[in-house]
Design brief:
By secondary structure, the protein is an alpha+beta fold. The protein has one domain. Helix content is about 50%, strand content about 10%. A two-stranded antiparallel ribbon has the order 1-2.
């Protein structure tokens, strides 16, 4: 669980939704354009994703 303020989450979600990257409704996020979303997020995303794959390998491979 993250310690975030609702207002900050709503502001960020609103921006991403306006850009067509996500759909945010009733507290649920749906990524609509993964490629653009990956380009939009910080460089730490790839580091975290690669570590997750390394530490928690799945039968289907990477978490595409």
């Amino acid at each position: 669980m993250l310690g975030l303020r609702l207002r900050g989450v709503m502001t960020a979600a609103g921006k991403l939704q306006t850009e067509g990257l996500i759909k945010y409704q009733n507290g649920r996020f749906t990524v609509l354009n993964r490629g653009k979303m990956e380009k939009r997020v910080c460089a730490c995303y790839k580091i975290v994703r690669d570590e997750e794959i390394r530490l928690l390998p799945q039968k289907s491979g990477a978490l595409a």
